[in-house]
Design a protein that fits this description.
The protein is α+β, with helices and mostly antiparallel strands and 518 residues long. It is built from 22 helices and 19 strands. The radius of gyration is 33 Å and the shape is globular. The chain starts with 12 loop residues before the first helix and ends with a strand.
Length: 518
C-alpha cells in the first residue's frame, strides 16, 4: 500500500503561522516595554488584581484571642515578669536612690527616678526609707515603699519609672480590649456594649471623663467587638483583672441553659436551681465570688487568720504586739505609720489583752477596734491602718448570681436587698460609698466596696442560696398575671447606662433599647 500523498502547497502553512505569531509577540513586547519606560508607575489590571489584595485586604483567618491590643513588647513583658517575682529587702534609713539601685540590681531591670516630677512635689530623692519585707512580689514591695512617699512605680518607655502619684494618674495609655464575648445577648446576634461600659466606669477607681469630669475615656466600636480605653497604668490593671473575673463568672452563668431547663426552673424554682448547679454538663464548678488581683500570698493570709492562737500582753507597745502576731501566724504584718500619724495614734501605744485559743481574725478585731484601727490585706501583707482609712479603701469583687436571679433577670430586687441588708454605705442609697452593677450578659453582679462589706455581701448571698434550697415550689402558676415587660428605673445619683423596657421576647432577637442617664 502506498503512503498518503501531501500537497506541496500545504507544507509552508504551519511554519508561516509560527513565524507570524513570534513576530507579533515581539512587536507587542516592544510596545509594552516602551509604555512601561514612558510610564514607570503604571500597572496592568492583572498586576493590580495580584498586588492590591495583599496590600489592602486583611487576612480572612481568625487570629489568636488577645486580652488587649497592642500586645506588650518583649521589654515590657520582661518588666511585668520581673514585677511578679518575689524579693526580700531590709532597709534602715536608706536613701531612696540607694533603694532604687538595690531593686534595679536584684531584679535586673532598668529603674529610673522621675527627678523633675519629684522636685515639683517637694520630694527629695534621698528621702530615708525603712522597711523589712520577705517573700513578696517586687510589685507589692515597691508599692509598700513608695506609696507612703506619695510616689508610684509604673512601666513607661520600657523602663520602670518612679514618679509622683499625681504624675502617674496623668500618664494615660490607650488599649483596645476585644469584649464581644462578654457583650453578646444570649439567643441573639446583638451585643450590649453600653452595660459593660457602665460597669467598668462604675466599678474601677478611675477617674473617668464621663463620670468625674476628668481622667480617662472609653469608646465602643461594635464593628470590631471592642472597647478603646485611654487610662492610667493602674486603672488598666483593674480593667484587665475585672474582665478576667467576668469571663470566669460567665462559665457559671446558668441563664445559658436550655429552654426546657429554664421552664422547669420557672415552675419549680428551688429544685430546678439546685439541679442546674449540679448538672453534669456544667463547664466548671460553680463559684460564688471571684476576686481580682488576689495573689497566693494574700490567700495564705486569709487562711492564716483562721488559725487559733493564745496571746498575753500587758502594756506592750503596739509595734511589738504586731510583731508577735506576724510570728505566730507566719505572715507579713505592716503598720501604716502615715495613717496612724495623721490620726494622732502612736505606734508605741501600750496594749493590754489576754486571749486563749481564739482565731487570729477575732484577736485582731478585739485588739485593734478600741484603738480605732483595722487590719486589711493589701499588697500581699496584713496592713494595720486606721478605721477611717479602711473605710476609704474600695475593692471590686464579681459575684455570679444567675442561680438567684433566674430567667426573669430581676437584678434590681437583689441589689436592693444587698444594699438594705449590709452596713454600706452605698452611693445609690446614701450618696457616698460603694457601688453595685449588674452585667446580665454574664449573669453576675460586680460590687465595689470595702473588704468588710464584701464579706457581708458574700455571706448574705450564701444565706439566700441556703434559703432557696428550702423554698417550697408553688402549687400552681397563674401565667395570665405575669408581666412580660419591666422597666428598670435609673438610680438617683451617679451616672452611666441602663436598660429599659426589656421584653421577655428579647431572647428571640428583639432589639433592646439602650438609654443614657446622668
Amino acid at each position: 500500500m502506498s503512503e498518503p500523498q501531501t500537497s506541496r502547497s500545504e507544507l509552508p502553512i504551519v511554519p508561516a503561522l509560527v513565524v507570524s505569531s513570534l513576530l507579533g509577540g515581539l512587536v507587542a513586547l516592544g510596545l509594552f516595554g516602551l509604555w512601561r519606560f514612558a510610564m514607570p508607575g503604571a500597572t496592568t489590571p492583572a498586576e493590580q488584581s495580584a498586588v492590591a489584595p495583599a496590600a489592602t485586604m486583611p487576612s480572612s483567618g481568625r487570629a489568636e484571642f488577645a486580652e488587649f491590643l497592642p500586645p506588650l513588647t518583649p521589654q515590657e513583658q520582661r518588666l511585668e515578669n520581673a514585677l511578679e517575682k518575689p524579693i526580700d529587702c531590709d532597709f534602715q534609713d536608706q536613701p531612696l536612690t540607694d533603694v532604687v539601685a538595690f531593686f534595679e540590681k536584684q531584679a535586673s531591670i532598668r529603674i529610673v527616678i522621675d527627678t523633675e516630677a519629684l522636685q515639683e512635689e517637694g520630694i527629695a530623692t534621698d528621702t530615708p526609707v525603712t522597711r523589712t519585707l520577705r517573700g513578696l512580689k517586687l510589685r507589692s514591695t515597691l508599692n509598700l515603699i513608695v506609696t507612703p512617699l506619695q510616689l508610684a512605680a509604673i512601666p513607661k518607655d520600657e523602663v520602670l519609672r518612679v514618679t509622683t502619684l499625681a504624675k502617674a494618674k496623668e500618664t494615660l495609655q490607650t488599649r483596645t480590649y476585644p469584649v464581644s464575648d462578654l457583650c453578646h445577648i444570649p439567643g441573639t446576634n446583638v451585643g450590649d456594649f453600653q452595660s459593660l461600659m457602665m460597669l467598668l466606669e462604675t466599678e474601677t477607681s478611675g477617674p473617668w471623663q464621663n463620670r468625674d469630669g476628668e481622667g480617662g475615656n472609653m469608646t465602643e466600636f461594635e464593628n470590631t467587638g471592642s472597647l478603646s480605653i485611654q487610662q492610667s497604668y493602674e486603672v488598666h490593671r483593674e480593667i484587665l483583672e475585672l474582665l478576667r473575673t467576668l469571663r470566669a463568672a460567665q462559665k457559671s452563668n446558668l441563664n445559658n441553659a436550655s429552654k426546657s431547663e429554664l421552664q422547669k426552673w420557672d415552675e419549680q424554682r428551688a429544685a430546678a436551681a439546685s439541679a442546674l448547679l449540679k448538672r453534669s454538663a456544667a463547664p466548671v464548678k460553680f463559684v460564688d465570688v471571684l476576686r481580682g488581683l488576689t495573689s497566693e500570698s494574700e490567700r495564705h493570709i486569709e487562711s492564716s487568720l483562721d488559725k487559733s492562737l493564745s496571746i498575753s500582753f500587758q502594756d506592750t507597745p503596739l509595734t511589738e504586739v504586731v510583731g508577735s502576731f506576724a510570728r505566730q501566724l507566719g505572715i507579713n504584718v505592716v503598720i501604716d505609720n502615715e495613717s496612724l500619724t495623721e490620726e494622732g495614734i502612736a505606734t508605741d501605744t501600750p496594749v493590754t489583752l489576754r486571749l486563749n485559743q481564739v482565731t487570729g481574725r477575732s484577736a485582731l478585731e478585739l485588739l485593734l477596734r478600741p484603738l480605732q484601727l483595722s487590719a486589711v490585706i493589701e499588697n500581699e501583707v496584713l496592713l494595720v491602718t486606721t478605721t477611717q482609712k479602711e473605710n476609704q479603701r474600695l475593692v471590686s469583687h464579681t459575684y455570679p448570681v444567675s442561680d438567684l436571679i433566674g430567667p426573669g433577670e430581676d437584678y434590681q430586687s437583689l441589689i436592693r436587698m444587698l444594699e438594705t441588708s449590709t452596713s454600706g454605705p452605698w452611693l445609690q442609697s446614701h450618696g457616698e460609698g460603694g457601688t453595685m452593677t449588674e452585667l446580665y450578659t454574664v449573669g453576675s453582679l460586680v460590687v465595689r466596696q470595702t473588704p468588710t462589706v464584701q464579706k457581708q455581701v458574700l455571706n448574705l448571698l450564701r444565706q439566700q442560696r441556703e434559703a432557696q434550697k428550702r423554698m417550697q415550689p408553688p402549687r400552681s402558676i397563674d401565667k395570665s398575671n405575669r408581666r412580660s415587660d419591666k422597666t428598670i428605673q435609673p438610680p438617683q445619683s451617679g451616672g452611666g447606662y441602663f436598660r429599659t423596657s426589656m421584653s421577655s421576647e428579647t431572647s428571640a432577637g428583639n432589639r433592646m433599647e439602650l438609654s443614657r442617664w446622668r
